[in-house]
Amino acid sequence: xxxxxxxxxxxxxxxxxxxxxxxxxxxxxxxxxxxxxxxxxxxxxxxxxxxxxxxxxxxxxxxxxxxxxxxxxxxxxxxxxxxxxxxxxxxxxxxxxxxxxxxxxxxxxxxxxxxxxxxxxxxxxxxxxxxxxxxxxxxxxxxxxxxxxxxxxxxxxxxxxxxxxxxxxxxxxxxxxxxxxxxxxxxxxxxxxxxxxxxxxxxxxxxxxxxxxxxxxxxxxxxxxxxxxxxxxxxxxxxxxxxxxxxxxxxxxxxxxxxxxxxxxxxxxxxxxxxxxxxxxxxxxxxxxxxxxxxxxxxxxxxxxxxxxxxxxxxxxxxxxxxxxxxxxxxxxxxxxxxxxxxxxxxxxxxxxxxxxxxxxxxxxxxxxxxxxxxxxxxxxxxxxxxxxxxxxxxxxxxxxxxxxxxxxxxxxxxxxxxxxxxxxxxxxxxxxxxxxxxxxxxxxxxx
Length: 448
Hints:
alpha+beta, Outer membrane efflux proteins (OEP), 2 domains, elongated, TolC-like
């Protein structure tokens, strides 16, 4: 009994531990966790999945048009007063009850290719829906990467602002002591106090920017925002990323063959083509095959004074029929002609949308390549500028401490360094994200 109890306790603890481990830590989410949560919670993705289920139902319905339909019906009625007795076929004044039984079946033999083309159109729409689902997933993933990078960028900006405030605060403390002993004029202290207030404001702005970046990310992955929401900051070095190709046309050709948006646009044109064939099918004759079985029961006596049993009457009254139905369209008040015209316009619209999708893809690739190359050059220049300004600030700090320069010159040097560091960070993350956008179009993994 004791071993059984310990076994159950161990099982419960293991279950709780596993459930706990499966819950992501929202205080330190990795990029992969953000993407997984975002894909799971995104309503656009759920809508695309439901649309795909609807496309499957449309295909099932279209395939069903090749099969015969079958229905059965029954009815019962009573007549009072003068009416024909269906047994004696004479007019009588009495209550007559009867039960009718019937079954009907019909199928389309030929309809101008409408059934076949409807099936092909439904298949095409299903394939299009699958590519639409992939495109939705890709767009969600790319947006989450962008917002994740924004959070990392905001965190680094916050660290820079903290560092600047720390430097200013330390210089202010030192200057106050020197002013108290008369080694420095009060104006130096006042200038540094103004600079310190500016640094505090910049720190506050950086904190707000980080909070907004986190808010955007949490809303994108549909997680209720909390103060402790955060991400696990990866070690992102711009030197670890490189532009996969410098040939934009080559990148476009690869993306054109891989991107689901293009496949979806191509299938939309194909689907509209089948729709046009369906509309043209209305001008052709249609041939249908139908069959019917009928029987009934009447609660009246026959000519011999007896009422036959239900089963006997049903068997004796059984009748069957089979026939062909040929429908030849001659004039349909221009409905068929208008239908073909609308279908042709729909195909032309799909062709325009396909070309629009290709143009948009080319523009996005050109923009991503231009952004990546521009950001890389800016980053490389900013690194040199930051290195030079760091040395200049180090010298200015020493000169300020020995009284060679005043507080204003010190502030100028510090502000120049702060701005250069901010520009370098911005260029760094613009470059990283632009490279990932190019990787996305080239079919490379969307990871940092």
